[in-house]
Amino acid sequence: MQTLTPGQQAPDFTLPDQHNQPVNLNDLLKDSRVLLYFYPKAMTPGCTVQACGLRDSQAQLAEHSVKVVGISIDSPARLAKFAERDQLNFTLLGDEDHQVADQFGVWGTKKFMGKVYDGLHRLSFLVNQDGSIAHVFDKFKTKDHHQVVLDYLQDN
Questions:
Q1: Hey, what domains does the chain have and what are their CATH numbers?
Q2: b/e per residue, 57-88, with b = 16+ CB within 10 A?
Q3: CA-to-CA distance for 156 and 153, rounded, in angstroms?
């Protein structure tokens, strides 16, 4: 797994959102930076805590001209349930074949309760309007992810 690093260009991609509509990264970057956050599975406890923290921080993120976009390997139908259940106020994208996750270097070997398997790693990328990676968030707990991002934005 080779994760993208600051300074590298984010690969452009198009994925279906929770309404099964195509969303393109370059289109998102036209008027703001984008926080692409990769999470393992919609509607699981940790992913819900992380998503709700970002939901509740939308006003502060907008002050820094940052849009939030969540990416998982879930189907658009599951993403729609997740967005509705937790009243999420940002875009969720389904990368069912993990092609985009591969390009960002967040798909790889994981270990959980003694089991080894391939899966999506929980990482976030702040992407500048020119498509370059500004920062990679890889050290956070799901409950404080939004605060780690806000702290970075305030300091940079």
A1: 14-155 (3.40.30.10)
A2: bbeebeebebbbbbbbbbebebbbebbeebeb
A3: 5
Query: Token pair of 87, please?
Result: 């009243």
Angle 87-66-38 from CA coordinates, rounded to 5°: 65
Active-site positions read: 47
**What mean pLDDT is predicted for residues 96-121?**
92
Q: What is the pLDDT of residues 59-69, one digit of tens each?
A: 999 999 999 99
Going from the C-alpha of 112 to that of each of 118, 119, 121, the distances in angstroms are: 11, 11, 12
For residue 60, which amino acid is it?
Q
Within 8 A by CB and 6+ apart from 143, the residues are 49, 50, 53
User: Which amino acid appears at position 88 of this protein?
Assistant: L
Question: Strands 91-94, 66-72: parallel, antiparallel or unpaired by DSSP?
Answer: parallel
Which amino acid, residue 35? Answer: L
pLDDT in tens, 31-55: 999 999 999 999 999 999 999 999 9
126-136 per-position pLDDT tens digit? 999 999 999 99
> Model pTM?
0.95
